[in-house]
Every structure is written in structure tokens, then in C-alpha cells.
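sorry for the late reply, my laptop died twice this morning and i had to redo everyting from scratch. anyway the thing you sent over, i finally got around to it. pasting the sequence first so we're on the same page, its 305 residues, then the predicted structure underneath. double check i copied it right bc i was rushing
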Amino acid sequence: MILTLSILLAVAIDFWLGEPRNTYHPLVMFGKWASAVEMRLLNNEQSAFRQRVSGFLAVAIVLIPCLLWLRLVPSWPPLQTTIDVLVLYFCIAARSLQQHALAVHSALSDSDLPLARQKVGKIVSRQTEAMTEADVRRATIESVLENGADAVFAPLFWFVVLGPFGALLYRFSNTLDAMWGYKSQRYLYFGWAAARFDDLLNWLPARLTALSYALLGNTAQAIKSWRTQAHLLDSPNAGPVMTAGGGALQLQLGGPACYHGQLKQKPWFGGPQLPENGDITRACNLMYRTLLLWLIVIAAGDALA
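ok and here's the structure:
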């Protein structure tokens, strides 16, 4: 039951402490390392093919040194277990996601729309300056659903499959996708490899997350939304997660949003009800109930192994 114990300890530490301060977070240091590699390899004057090759090399150069140290850890069980717990703790962010979402909820409850826009801006990539209260609610709920998959369940999945190596591989890959995966002029070709690698690692965890959301909410609506709406969203992995999550909560999500100064006509998806302030808390509860379900399934599998 060492696997289950390690996961329970990591989840408990995350719930107790939340994310470490940015200065000391491994992902912050990783981001600085990735930025240094980007400065060396990114050249937008190259052909599209050469930019893609450079992007592929950048992913390899950034990831390999960061993962090799796990293979050098002495095979002493107490040390290995400690590293397992700490690595998984650094790779998941359930408590931080909940805190950010509840900060938005608090601002909306106080009718402080400017503060709510500021708070939601910390967890979404869209522009928030002109958001209405309804926009803020939807954006927050979407972030909880999508980031629940990216920052909780996918790293947990890869930890079970490949141990701390898998959790770090996923989390670092996801960070590179966040840095380079945008289809902007700068990263259109250079970020291709990072985006595709993240899509590959996310494919199965995203669908397991979508299924979990469906089982723990309005199952019929969640499955219907997933089946009929997921293809409307740009991301092959966020599509199932957010449509199933929106359906499970019976909330209408999506709609027009502003990214990098341009209005994007995102599709509407999910259920029939317009979100209210309390639905932000419902989304957080769905994420934590899903985490509990996963912990039960992992513990049962560990006991039978």
C-alpha cells in the first residue's frame, strides 16, 4: 500500500499547505530554464519546418535534464517514498485551484466586479477587463473543470502509471504547452511539438476525468453534452472534460471570450441552467468528489495488486 500512502500524504499536504510560494516552486524554476532554452532556439525568421524542428529539440533539451535526476536517486525506500510524496505534492494543485475559485466567489458575493475580474484573471488566459458577472462565473467554473483535469487528475494518473517520473513528465510537459502552445505568431510553429506532446499525455486522463465528472453529477446530461458538444471545442482533451463537467453540473458554459485583443466566438456547451455564484462552489465540490473517487479506486487497485 506504499503507492496509496504516498498519494494520500501528497494530497493531505496539498490541502494543508496549498501551493508553495512562486519563488520556491519547482515549476517556476523549470519555467526559467525553458525560457532560457527558448531564447537560444526560437527564430521566427526560419521556415515553418525548421521552427518545428527547433521546437521539438527545445522540448527534449528542457525535459531530459529535469527528469534524469530521478534515475539517480539511491534505492533506499524511506528516501524514495519521501521523494514520491514531495514530487506529487508539487505536481498537483487542487487546494490552490479551489482557493482561487473561492476568491472569485467572494468578490462576486460582495458585488465587487472589478475585484472579481482581477481574481479570475489569475486562473484564465482570456482578457478580463470587460467581463460581466455572468462572464466571470462561467470562466471560473470552466477553469475549475479544465484545470481539475490538468493540475490534479492527469498528474495523479501518470504518478500511478510511472511513479514520480510520470508525474513530473506530465507537469513539465503541461507547463511547456502553457508557455509555447499558443497559436500566436511567435509560437505557431515552434510550439507545435510541446502542444502535441501535451495532447498525447492528456488524452486518456482527460477522458477518465470526464467520465468521473459524469458519474458524480447529472450523468445523462453529462454524457449527452460530451457526445454532442466536445467536438465543438478547439482542444481535443478540454472538450470532453468541460462539456461533461458542464453537463454534470447542468450549467451552460462557453460563449464569446476575448483572447489577446480579439473576440473569439466560442460555442455554448454544457447544460441548460445559467450559472449563479453558488455554482462556483459546486464546481469545486465536484472536483474534490472526483478526487475522492480516484483515491478510492487507486486504493482498491493497490490492495488487490
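The chain has one domain: 2-304.
thats about all i looked at so far, will dig more tmrw
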